[in-house]
């Protein structure tokens, strides 16, 4: 969302600035940003979601990081200046002045004439603001709407470069002194020829300058398509994206227009490399949070760039920080075709995320929980949904479970394990991120009839022994069947809880009594994780990926292997190394581990299908060909069911809240045909 970008006479673009100010204000109210001036300038107060708070925090932090670096590196100069393009109701000047950082710096702000008039009126009316501008402040003439000793407000359309140049000259901008240009989601609203001309003009006219740009990137992946659609619906199209779709293109843009140095990183990189660990922990502890996928996707679709000429770059990443990236482009071994599930488009209850779908008997798939769309409303899903195949066709049915409490099945990020053809166990899950985990439920359905029959499923709360209870008070965990000395156990591993954002413990639950059984485990203990995948294999468990304690994706694969006296953790080496990821699903087929979708920090592509040969460790990535889908396929927070006879995967649900761009839910179940990649090995 732009910060009041002065680009064309578009009310819609100006509205993005108002919305941005309110979001920043909400983030400040929750302690993300220390800024007492935002509320004075924004006026409106509205509580935003934790995801929005994090998004505006990282944006404010990036701008502050570069501004304070500029001021530090130019403190020996007698005079410097900051030119904020499309500043809207930003509080930068007031914060810097209040902190005593503007001894020899003049701040110029440019925006639409009506925006700067409103801002000037606010400043004159509110004493806390006017006192910082100083007694000498006067209403200007022409484009200079308001003028203080070291603060100037200019009402000009940025896309009219000659007018802008004339107004800045009139306001006293000096092209011979060190200058910082700030464009915070501004240039992208301009036609590229005009924004390019502005970038080039700044380099040519100012021999000592830095340029700070914060903008969107990666328009063509599923999140990028949702993002673009949002801005198009606001009549505020993002023009830069077509010509400059990635960080490398933006870097070339500046280097080709007179800037001698240019550094750029996406916001995942920035968070890891430029924000100290103690500050990261402070932000993570401010409020309950469980939208990791959307946070990382948002951060991979925005970047911060600093270009410089004639002076040191305004940029200082933290030393020795490892980013969980994959070096170089992803090597693609082939593609997997995706096709919509005929007859299931528009079926109520299929559009959801954070749910679980499992094969409860041949050709019968049960889907429980999650957040989604039912009868046109977004809600936590209370009813269960059954897909059953007869005469070659899949049909959907909705089942209201028989239960003493209709809300028992209303949960996200739980697991469901089928123990027999008539019995499944639902473990954990949550309602809100601040709630405790939700315990355990029996799901019972008759052997003979289909679970989609109206009386098909009965839900019963499991009364657990105290020793087993902690196993169930969690979400984003895994529950996997293992065998030890001929007996079946459920291995509950990892996840999150209300007390701990990431867990690394495990429990063996006897499948008959659901009591906690202590079984010895040796070997190197995997790092704590949630949103990983877990599959039964040869009596043990394969754990892959996940999100670690630092909120960074993991690329490790572990096998929990049965021994005579217990189990042993054993690292599975892959080559090339598995690209770190989380929020994927997984299946094992004939000695191969299949990882489906997920979220990674590799910005050039989205995860498709990864096949790991468990005998050799060979790891191959396949892209998903979505040309036959008319909507963006988001492969995170989804479920998948593998049908080995057909060598097909059915992906059910997936998606999430795409920052402030709205909720995206995959429209229908999707078939992924794996026959080519499973026979070619």
From TrEMBL:
Keywords: Methyltransferase, S-adenosyl-L-methionine, Transferase, tRNA processing. Pathway: tRNA modification; wybutosine-tRNA(Phe) biosynthesis. The keyword Protein biosynthesis does not apply. One of its GO terms (molecular function) is tRNA methyltransferase activity. Its EC number is 2.1.1.290, 2.3.1.231. It catalyses: 7-[(3S)-(3-amino-3-methoxycarbonyl)propyl]wyosine(37) in tRNA(Phe) + S-adenosyl-L-methionine + CO2 = wybutosine(37) in tRNA(Phe) + S-adenosyl-L-homocysteine + 2 H(+); 7-[(3S)-3-amino-3-carboxypropyl]wyosine(37) in tRNA(Phe) + S-adenosyl-L-methionine = 7-[(3S)-(3-amino-3-methoxycarbonyl)propyl]wyosine(37) in tRNA(Phe) + S-adenosyl-L-homocysteine. GO terms for biological process: tRNA methylation; wybutosine biosynthetic process. It comes from the Eukaryota. InterPro entries: Gal_Oxase/kelch_b-propeller, Kelch-typ_b-propeller, Ppm1/Ppm2/Tcmp, SAM-dependent_MTases_sf. It is an enzyme of class 2 (transferase). Belongs to the methyltransferase superfamily. LCMT family. This is tRNA wybutosine-synthesizing protein 4.
């Amino acid at each position: 969302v732009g910060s009041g970008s002065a680009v064309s006479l578009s009310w819609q673009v100006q509205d993005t600035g108002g919305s941005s100010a309110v979001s920043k204000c909400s983030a400040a109210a929750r302690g993300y940003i220390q800024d007492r001036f935002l509320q004075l300038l924004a006026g409106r107060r509205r509580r935003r979601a934790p995801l929005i708070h994090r998004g505006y925090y990282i944006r404010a932090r990036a701008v502050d990081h570069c501004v304070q670096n500029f001021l530090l590196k130019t403190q020996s100069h007698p005079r410097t200046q900051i030119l904020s393009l499309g500043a809207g109701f930003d509080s930068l000047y007031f914060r810097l002045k209040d902190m005593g950082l503007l001894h020899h710096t003049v701040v110029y702000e440019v925006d639409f004439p009506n925006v700067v008039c409103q801002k000037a009126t606010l400043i004159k009316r509110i004493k806390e603001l006017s006192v910082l501008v100083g007694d000498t402040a006067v209403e200007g003439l022409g484009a200079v709407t308001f003028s203080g000793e070291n603060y100037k407000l200019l009402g000009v359309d940025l896309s009219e470069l000659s007018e802008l140049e004339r107004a800045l000259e009139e306001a006293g901008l000096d092209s011979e002194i060190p200058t910082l240009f700030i464009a915070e989601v501004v240039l992208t609203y301009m036609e590229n020829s005009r924004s390019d001309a502005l970038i080039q003009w700044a380099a040519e006219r100012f021999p000592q300058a830095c340029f700070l740009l914060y903008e969107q990137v990666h328009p063509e992946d599923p999140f990028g398509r949702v993002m673009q659609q949002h801005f198009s619906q606001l009549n505020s199209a993002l023009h830069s994206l077509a010509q400059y779709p990635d960080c490398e293109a933006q870097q070339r843009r500046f280097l080709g227009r007179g800037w001698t140095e240019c550094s750029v990183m996406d916001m995942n990189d920035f968070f890891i490399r430029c924000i100290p660990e103690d500050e990261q922990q402070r932000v993570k502890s401010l409020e309950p949070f469980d939208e990791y996928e959307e946070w990382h996707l948002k951060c991979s679709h925005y970047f911060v760039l600093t270009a410089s000429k004639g002076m040191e770059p305004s940029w200082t990443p933290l030393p020795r920080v490892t980013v969980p990236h994959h070096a170089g482009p992803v090597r693609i071994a082939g593609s997997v075709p995706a096709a919509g599930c005929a007859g299931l488009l528009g079926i109520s209850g299929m559009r959801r995320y954070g749910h679980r779908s499992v094969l409860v008997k041949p050709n019968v798939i049960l889907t429980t929980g999650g957040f989604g769309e039912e009868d046109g409303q977004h809600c936590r899903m209370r009813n269960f949904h059954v897909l059953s195949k007869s005469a070659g066709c899949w049909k959907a049915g909705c089942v209201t479970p028989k239960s003493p409490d209709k809300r028992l099945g209303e949960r996200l990020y739980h697991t469901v394990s089928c123990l027999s053809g008539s019995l499944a166990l639902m473990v954990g899950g949550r309602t809100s991120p601040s709630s405790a985990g939700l315990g355990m439920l029996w799901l019972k359905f008759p052997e003979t009839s289909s679970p989609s029959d109206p009386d098909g499923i009965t839900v019963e709360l499991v009364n657990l022994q105290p020793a087993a209870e902690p196993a169930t008070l969690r979400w984003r965990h895994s529950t996997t069947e293992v065998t030890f000395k001929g007996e079946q156990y459920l291995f509950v591993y990892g996840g999150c809880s209300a007390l701990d954002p990431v867990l690394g413990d495990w429990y063996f639950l006897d499948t008959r009594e659901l009591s906690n059984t202590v079984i010895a485990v040796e070997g190197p203990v995997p790092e704590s994780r949630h949103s990983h995948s877990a599959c039964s294999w040869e009596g043990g468990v394969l754990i892959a990926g996940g999100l670690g304690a630092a909120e960074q994706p993991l690329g490790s694969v572990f096998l929990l292997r049965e021994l005579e006296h217990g189990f042993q953790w054993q690292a599975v080496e892959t080559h090339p190394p598995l690209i770190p990821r989380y929020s994927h699903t997984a299946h094992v087929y004939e000695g191969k581990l299949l990882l489906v979708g997920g979220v990674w920090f590799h910005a050039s592509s989205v995860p498709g299908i990864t096949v790991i040969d468990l005998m050799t460790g060979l790891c191959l990535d396949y892209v998903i060909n979505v040309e036959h889908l008319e909507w963006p396929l988001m492969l995170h927070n989804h479920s998948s069911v593998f049908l080995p006879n057909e060598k097909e995967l059915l992906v059910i649900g997936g998606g999430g809240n795409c920052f402030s761009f709205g909720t995206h839910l995959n429209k229908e179940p999707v078939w992924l045909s794996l026959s080519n990649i499973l026979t070619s090995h």
